[in-house]
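Q: what sequence does this backbone want?
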């Protein structure tokens, strides 16, 4: 394979996964969760295209709120992206792909881009990789290639691709005759019965300049906004921040609607690769292991006389008796119960939580930070108890709080404490007190994770009661931990 025909993966990691609430949440969505194994969906997707003989290093497009999680997860598996492009807010896939194409052209004159949602499952990676190789000649010739999977059922949650004639000089490729956006149940059944349609996998292969040409033709406003956002963007440590004003003004549109439904250059690669977008709890259940009664069981679960149900606990004991065709997901702060045939409606709950301003819709009890994580253990009037885990060599910002004092107890590891002008070490079972208004910093100088209990007390305990004086992660002078 020549360097010119080696695709640059573009990992789209901007979704919120609202149909997988309460596990997937705004600040920790499904692509950053281990849904199908020990690794997160982002990590699994990155590994899928990490062979240097076949793929160039990837670009990642993600929400700026997820930047440290994305960078850390890629570092954990040894994948070094060419760049991580930060969206100030989600504007759907057309703008995300547009800015990725602009970034790729700044690295290479006209590279091939392999666009991959970071939250999809592919069971047969070898067939997927072979399909990419099949698609390269068509893409090099100017086609906009998309990938389609044979429908296993009449599914209302997926779009469909109608196959046309085979493409000359590109064996295994067919013309894209029609896009069918997510149909109702009756229309989906009709489509599947024809045998001439595939599920739309949302995976694309094309030359960067070619997709920008079609964007200029069909959606010039999107292209112009993305060009401004990229030109006015700035480097921030390992990230590239798109200009917030320019990008937020960009129309929100999927690449399917913006280009693929309108172009005459659309091509489809049919591929049987065990694909799923894991767009709902029922979809996740379909790809998981089941017991003899048809149940998929994850975590601390005891089930009696249960059948055809998805039962998952992320902490508390989940006990189920006599249930059938249910999805039950228990988290430390929320529990979901929904019939399997209404799994798509979970997004309505997520929207309701957002409308009410409920924290359960936005963040997990375990909150990731660039230095580690924290989890609220207990909270009440004028007090809050947290468990902090600080990664080896990491440190929190130098900061003070106007409205709360803090007590720190080291449970495991070694902590370096700076409190005003003094600096000292604490080890297991030792503690210290940080008075209100005191400039302080917590660091982990050791080679193992630092575990610490923090007891906050005061009139206001919100995460925005922080004034930063110095931060290793480039965060604002005010904000949360």
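A:
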């Amino acid at each position: 394979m020549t360097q010119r025909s080696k695709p640059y993966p573009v990992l789209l990691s901007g979704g919120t996964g609202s149909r997988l609430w309460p596990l997937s949440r705004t600040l920790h969505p499904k692509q950053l969760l281990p849904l199908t194994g020990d690794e997160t969906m982002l990590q699994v997707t990155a590994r899928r295209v990490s062979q240097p003989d076949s793929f160039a290093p990837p670009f990642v497009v993600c929400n700026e709120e997820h930047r440290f999680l994305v960078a850390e997860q890629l570092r954990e598996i040894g994948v070094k992206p060419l760049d991580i492009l930060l969206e100030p807010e989600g504007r759907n896939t057309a703008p995300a792909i547009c800015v990725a194409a602009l970034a790729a052209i700044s690295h290479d004159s006209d590279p091939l881009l392999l666009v991959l949602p970071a939250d999809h499952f592919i069971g047969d990676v070898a067939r997927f990789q072979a399909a990419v190789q099949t698609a390269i000649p068509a893409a090099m010739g100017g086609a906009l290639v998309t990938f389609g999977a044979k429908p296993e059922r009449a599914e209302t949650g997926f779009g469909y691709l109608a196959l046309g004639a085979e493409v000359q000089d590109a064996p295994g490729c067919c013309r894209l005759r029609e896009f069918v956006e997510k149909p109702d149940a009756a229309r989906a059944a009709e489509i599947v019965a024809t045998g001439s349609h595939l599920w739309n996998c949302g995976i694309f292969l094309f030359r960067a300049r070619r997709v920008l040409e079609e964007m200029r033709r069909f959606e010039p406003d999107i292209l112009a906004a993305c060009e401004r956002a990229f030109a006015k963007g700035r480097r921030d440590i390992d990230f590239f921040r798109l200009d917030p004003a320019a990008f937020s003004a960009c129309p929100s549109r999927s690449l399917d609607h913006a280009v693929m439904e309108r172009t005459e250059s659309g091509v489809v690669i049919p591929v049987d690769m065990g694909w799923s977008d894991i767009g709902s709890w029922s979809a996740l259940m379909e790809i998981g292991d089941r017991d003899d009664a048809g149940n998929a069981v994850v975590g601390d679960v005891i089930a009696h006389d249960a059948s055809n149900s998805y039962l998952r606990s992320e902490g508390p004991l989940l006990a189920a008796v006599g249930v059938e065709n249910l999805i039950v997901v228990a988290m430390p702060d929320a529990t979901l119960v929904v019939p399997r045939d209404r799994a798509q409606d979970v997004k309505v709950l997520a929207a309701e939580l957002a409308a009410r301003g409920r924290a359960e819709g936005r963040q997990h009890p375990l909150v990731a930070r660039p230095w580690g994580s924290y989890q609220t253990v207990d909270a009440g009037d004028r007090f809050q108890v947290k468990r902090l885990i600080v990664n080896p060599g990491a440190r929190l910002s130098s900061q003070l709080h106007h409205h709360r004092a803090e007590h720190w107890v080291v449970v495991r590891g070694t902590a370096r404490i700076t409190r005003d002008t003094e600096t000292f070490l604490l080890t297991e079972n030792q503690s210290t007190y940080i008075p209100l208004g005191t400039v302080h910093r917590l660091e982990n100088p050791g080679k193992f994770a630092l575990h610490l209990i923090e007891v906050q007390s005061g009139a206001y305990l919100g995460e925005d009661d922080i004034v930063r004086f110095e931060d290793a992660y480039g965060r604002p002078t005010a904000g949360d931990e």
